[in-house]
Amino acid sequence: MILGRADGTMVQAPEPAVHRSWPEDGFPHGVYGPIPDDLTAAANEQLDNFAEILRSRGIRVDRPESIDFSQRVSTPDWTQDSMFGCMPPRDVLITVGNEILEATMCYRSRWFEYLCYRPLIDSYYRADPDMRWEAAPKPRLTDASYKKDFWPEYESLDFAQQIARVRANDLVLTEAEPLFDAADIVRFGKDLFVQLSMVTNRSGVDWLRRHFPSHRVHAVTFANAHPVHIDATWVPLRPGLVLHCGEREAEPELVEYFKMNDWEIVPAAPPTMTWDGLPRLCFCSPWLSMNILSLGPDTVCVEASEVAQMELLDKLGFEVIPVPFWDVATFGGGLHCSTVDVHREGTLQDYFPRRHGRF
Ligand code: ABU
Q1: pLDDT digits (tens, 9 = 90+) for 99-140
Q2: Which terminal residue of the chain has fewer beta carbons within 10 Å of its beta carbon, N or C?
């Protein structure tokens, strides 16, 4: 596994893809800078503890290299006043079979984040002659990639209007070029489900479809007004069992596809964490409670205070490993977000022999 680091993470400088505003914590919109040291130290402590838990299970844990995320970065097309960090490697990298793919990303602050992982990827590539190392086309991220004045207009809509926009994928990204975050992809063997979101557009899904011709690549949406990554919404637990954030309704056609292929859809337990209780400068939701890391078909790592989630998984027959992790949320996610599984045992399976509608 690769496990991220909190060091040097920034509240990033303003950019068109994202709107950040935490006036009560000293970061009103437009203000950027390093996340305070006390938050970074607390997150690193939990990350290091998680690394030890994984190692105690015989898992090799590799860590990325932090770089100076406070630096201004530019391409011939734009200049961005800061980078972000390297805590959620899941956003940047995905392993499919013997391939590691670097995602396009769509934040200018994250355009260069792949550099943190290059030493690791290079070492895997040299060690394994069968490994495929791929990078999706680096996007230009000119203003043409973003809808102008999207955020104030979108925030003025009510929930129903926002969900209509989500379902139509009429969000901040245009279709000027393929864009996706790796964490919007969830793997169910031969089927890859890709969430259309604030960070993934239809062109990105189309690129993935052409890139993985041996897989079935499906674009999906959920009733989440701020969709960013699928891994706290639709989470495979083991063959035939998927965990669903019931608050974020799935498309009926997706539900039917799973049911007709004999999958059980289990609603996740309500989070113990509340919106008010989230750590400072956190841009994730309490649904990180279901952002679990599966170590195999019988074993899952779950945030240690998410008692209801742990009980649910215990009842479903899993060995549950509690891992304290809420301090990491500020840095971009939970147990799944913070990791990339580089190597797993097993072979490619087709879990969906029956077709349905567009699936
Ligand atoms: N990858 C983080 C997802 C967080 C959320 O959906 O609430």
Answers
A1: 999 999 999 999 999 999 999 999 999 999 999 999 999 999
A2: C
Q: Which CATH architecture has domain 2-340?
A: 5-stranded Propeller (3.75)
Q: Which of 215, 218, 229, 336 is catalytic?
A: 229
- Assess whether 229 carries a catalytic annotation: yes
pTM of the model: 0.98
Q: Whose CA is nearest to atom 4 of ligand 1?
A: 284
Q: 135: CA distance to ligand 1 center in Å?
A: 24
Instruction: Tell me, using a 6 A CB cutoff, whether residue 183 lines ligand 1.
Output: yes
Res 24: pLDDT: 94
- Confirm or reject: Cβ of 229 under 6 Å from ligand 1: yes
226 flagged as catalytic: no
Report strand pairing: 78-80 vs 319-323: unpaired
Q: How far is the CA of 130 from the centre of ligand 1 (A)?
A: 33
Question: Is any atom of ligand 1 closer than 6 Å to the C-beta of 352?
Answer: no
**How confident is the model over 206-264, as pLDDT tens digits?**
999 999 999 999 999 999 999 999 999 999 999 999 999 999 999 999 999 999 999 99
The closest of 327, 339, 247 to 292, measured between CA atoms, is: 339
The pLDDT of 324-347, averaged and rounded, is: 97
Question: Mapping DSSP to helix (H, G, I), strand (E, B) and coil, where does residue 189 land?
Answer: strand
Tell me how far the alpha carbon of residue 306 lies from the centroid of ligand 1, in angstroms: 15
Question: Hey, whose CA ends up nearest to atom 7 of ligand 1?
Answer: 285
What beta strand segments (E) does the chain contain?
2-3, 10-11, 33-34, 73-75, 78-80, 93-96, 99-102, 132-135, 185-188, 191-195, 216-220, 234-238, 241-244, 264-267, 293-296, 299-303, 319-323, 339-340
Domain map (residue ranges) of the chain: 2-340
